[in-house]
Each structure stands twice: as C-alpha cells, then as structure tokens.
Design a protein that fits this description.
By secondary structure, this protein is an alpha/beta fold. The chain is built from 13 helices and 17 strands.
Length: 399
C-alpha cells in the first residue's frame, strides 16, 4: 500500500489517539529503517526504547520462530522452560531474588504498587497504603499509574483517579519529609525521568531516600520501564546508583520488540504476593520469554560497556556542535535528553524526521534520543550529520 492509502485506512479504522509523524515504516536493519516508498531513516527512537537490539537481528528472530513452532502459549497454570530460565537469568544479573512477568510497563508498575500495599497490609493492617512519587515522573497510562504520575498535564479527563498517591519534589529530602506520614508504604521513582525530560535523579538523594525507606519500613520501588535492560549502560540503572531496591519494574527493551514486562523483588518481598493475589493471562508467554533470553544474551557485559561508550560519544558530539538552539545534553548511557532553545521541540523533531532522523521529544522543551543499543558508529554519525544539517539550516537568518 502507498503511504496515502495507509494514512486514509488508518483514519477510517483506527482510533486517532496518536499524533503520528507522516511516515509509514516498512522494514529495517540494524538501526536503519526504510519507509514504504524506500526512503532511508536513521532510528534514534528504537520504538520508544523497545527495539533494544535494532532490526533484523537473526538470533532474536530464530529464538522467536523456534519457540513459536514449539509452544506459543500455555498460561501460568502450567510450568514452561522459557520464563523459568528468564527469571533465573534476570535474578543472577541483577542481584534480585524473584520475578513476576507481565505485558507492559504500566502493568508492571501496577504490580509493584500492589506489592507495596500488600507488604504493608500484612504487617500493619489498613490505613498504610500511600505511595510517594516524584514531580516530573511518568509511570503509565492506566488510571492508577496516571494517578502515580507527577505531571499535571496527564491529570485530566478520566476522573476520578485512584487514591493513595502523593507527589513530592525531586532531589529534595526536606520535601519528602514534608509530605510523608504514617499512611506511607512505599516510594516509586525513575532514576532517569524519561517523559519528564530525560532528567537523571541525584545519586545522593537516592541514597538518602533508600536509608529513609529502610528506617520507616517503606518499600523502595524503582521504575525501570525505560531505563532497564541495558539502556543506561548497565542491565538496570539502579546498579549504577549503588542501591538494591525492594522491587524494580521493567518492560520496553526486554523482549526486543515483543510486548513483555514484569518486575523483580528482593528477598524480603519474595513471599508477599501468593497464589491468587496477582496474575495476568499472558505473563511469561513462552515466545516473548524466548525473545527476552536472546536479548539478554546479546546484551552481555561487553555490549553494555559499549552502550556507555556510545552514549558518551553521542553527547560529546552533540555538545561539540555548539548550536545556540541546543542546551547541554544529559542522561545516562543511550538515554539522552537535549534541551531545545528558541524553537519548539516538537517542531524540531518533525524537521529531523523529514530529513531522515527519527527522534522523540520529552517534557516541554527537550529532544530525546533512544537509539538501538546495537547501533553502529556509522549509523550514529549519519544521524548526527542530519542533526547538524537541520540545525545549520535553522540558524540561518529568516529560517
């Protein structure tokens, strides 16, 4: 189908809940994509952090195909090897104790919220179910995870939202103390706030927060839906912060493009959720679990070290451009935010897409780059060249 035919069919048959760029992607290889008309694009989005190992990876495709022909689904009423092997691998590489598998980031965060509330109920009874979250956070689009999200722009239309959340200032322990009370059972935070603008949270703040959680018997819940599975240069970002959370959620990059997610817990939370307390029909799906095992095999320690090097290279090259339209790049690993000056970030993103560089926005004024973790230097340089050209054009008088 042509782009025009696809666009028309979309308008007629699909709920218009997305403001799509005028591009219909057909196929890809590595970190390079092609639309239905054959135009080439360098991908600095990886499907919003999902396509962690790029496109056309033969090992990933073989794992999916082999498992699909063997067993596509069986439900959690029975054992199957892929999810068990995946849980073992994740626990060994993260230092956590047990896993629960789900389907999306929001669902994974719902799981850690339930975990914290049941942990507290079991020990203290009713009245201790409030979870603290941070300003500029984003935790999902279900009614509950929207309530947990610390951005007013998402708090509209769908009233009433779920009770039991209180938003606090980021990097401000006094702010935490000001809103904390006897009703608190946990704290949920991203270590790099993605949708909020790619804002790394201060390490000293996180350490102090971990101490406070231990003192008050709150669960420390880390949302690694976007930062997890190698995005920041370690399997999980919390490993760079020197903490061991009570629970950590993950999704996006875990299965390299298939819908999958879940959360890991530490030893003291291992037995909080028993039979009947939490479930999902598709969780631990054998095909998705096999894809995730392939992703983790590809993202070994050598590959994760390369992620840090690539992220440093991209940030240094962007800063070296010296464009008055961009601020100093920030982030961890291959999760990069770039403040946009004088121009609208969405307008700049649209111009980049038009010229062949797929990118994202974050917050009110930033570009967000989330390239596939396996991107080559040539692909990075090609993308940077497009960015440089677009900035040069915009810096000319009258543009």
């Amino acid at each position: 189908m042509t782009f025009e035919a696809l666009q028309q069919a979309d308008k007629q048959n699909v709920l218009q809940t997305y403001s799509r760029f005028p591009v219909a992607i057909d196929w890809g290889e590595g970190a390079t994509l092609y639309d239905v008309e054959g135009k080439k694009y360098i991908d600095f989005t990886s499907g919003i952090g999902v396509n962690s190992i790029g496109y056309g990876n033969a090992k990933w495709a073989e794992a999916i195909t082999t498992q699909a022909m063997k067993l596509g689904h069986i439900s959690n009423l029975f054992y199957s090897e892929p999810y068990i092997k995946l849980a073992e691998t994740l626990c060994q590489r993260s230092g956590m104790t047990s896993a629960f598998f789900a389907n999306s980031g929001a669902e994974s965060n719902e799981g850690v919220i339930k975990l914290a509330r049941k942990y507290s109920f079991d020990k203290y009874g009713k009245g201790r179910g409030t979870i603290l979250t941070l300003n500029q956070s984003f935790h999902g689009r279900t009614i509950t995870t929207l309530a947990a999200t610390g951005q007013d722009v998402f708090h509209n239309y769908f009233f009433p939202f779920t009770d039991g959340f209180r938003t606090t200032p980021t990097n401000d322990m006094e702010g935490i103390s000001a809103v904390a009370g006897h009703d608190v059972c946990g704290v949920l935070l991203e270590l790099v706030q993605g949708e909020g603008g790619v804002l790394p949270v201060d390490k000293d703040f996180v350490h102090s927060l971990a101490v406070l959680c231990a003192e008050r018997d709150w669960l420390l819940l880390i949302d690694e839906v976007q930062t997890g599975v190698g995005r920041t240069g370690s399997l999980f970002a919390f490993q760079q912060y020197g903490i061991l959370p009570d629970a950590v959620s993950f999704a996006k990059g875990i299965a390299g493009g298939l819908p999958f997610g879940g959360f890991l817990v530490n030893e003291r939370c291992k037995n909080v959720l028993g039979p009947g307390t939490h479930a999902t029909t598709f969780g631990g799906n054998p095909v998705c679990a096999s894809a995730a095992l392939a992703v983790l095999d590809i993202l070994d320690e050598t590959a994760l070290s390369a992620v840090q090097e690539k992220g440093t290279y991209l940030r240094e090259q962007i800063e070296a451009m010296g464009s008055p339209l961009l601020g100093t790049p920030r982030g961890l690993g291959m999760m990069i935010g770039i403040p946009v000056k004088e121009r609208n970030n969405r307008e700049l993103a649209a111009r980049l897409v038009q010229r062949g560089l797929l990118c994202l926005t974050a917050g009110k004024d930033a570009l967000r780059f989330l390239p596939p973790l396996t991107i080559t230097k040539q692909e990075m340089d090609d993308g940077l060249s497009i960015l440089r050209q677009v900035l040069s054009d915009l810096e000319e008088p009258g543009k």
